């Protein structure tokens, strides 16, 4: 079975992430979305909430599983015997950083990285921008799936 890992913070998952996940799900038998637990980075949603949200909006694909992890992505891959990571590239500005990480991951563990060019519809889209817009009551429909939009509204109402 050909499996691939899509690692990231997903705080929260956006239509840009879903574009990459859904396209990967057509190329591989199984896509494992690995949600990074990063205690030093302040997140809006807990890792369990992020996992739950991705589960909800990817169940339609049928071959996507969502897991949380901390530590190195290559260790996550090694433990599950998955040799490939998929990363989305939004713009040239993503490339320098992504290339360095990909080369390091290959050096560390022989894990390959496949880059997928973002659908230009989403090349300006990031979780942090979505949070900023939602925080000030802006409209994020079209940027995130409907259930995520509702979660964002609720979260900012609470604060
Ligand atoms: P990280 O914190 O590791 O950058 P993200 O959650 O921001 O994690 O992103 C996870 C993956 O999704 C990365 O491969 C990233 O390049 C990709 N990605 C993020 N935003 C978009 C987007 N708008 N379109 C396509 N891919 C994206």
TrEMBL record:
What reaction(s) does this enzyme catalyze? Answer: (R)-4'-phosphopantetheine + ATP + H(+) = 3'-dephospho-CoA + diphosphate
Q: Per the database record, which ranges form the Cytidyltransferase-like domain? A: 5-132
| Keyword annotations from UniProtKB, A to Z | ATP-binding, Coenzyme A biosynthesis, Cytoplasm, Magnesium, Nucleotide-binding, Nucleotidyltransferase, Transferase
Residues the record annotates as the site (Transition state stabilizer) are: 17
Protein residues bound to ATP: 9-10, 17, 88-90, 98, 122-128
Query: InterPro entries from the xrefs?
Result: Cyt_trans-like (IPR004821), PPAT (IPR001980), Rossmann-like_a/b/a_fold (IPR014729)
Location, primary (coarse class): cytoplasm
Q: Which cofactor does it need?
A: Mg(2+)
One MF annotation (Gene Ontology) recorded for this entry: nucleotidyltransferase activity
EC number from the UniProt entry: 2.7.7.3
| Positions that bind substrate | 9, 41, 73, 87
Any keyword Transmembrane helix? Answer: no
User: Localized where?
Assistant: Cytoplasm
Pathway assignment:
Cofactor biosynthesis; coenzyme A biosynthesis; CoA from (R)-pantothenate: step 4/5
Subunit structure as annotated in this protein's UniProt entry: Homohexamer.
Indicate the family of this protein.
Belongs to the bacterial CoaD family.
UniProt function note = Reversibly transfers an adenylyl group from ATP to 4'-phosphopantetheine, yielding dephospho-CoA (dPCoA) and pyrophosphate.
Protein's name according to its UniProt entry: Phosphopantetheine adenylyltransferase
Q: What species is this protein from?
A: Actinoallomurus vinaceus
| Gene label | coaD
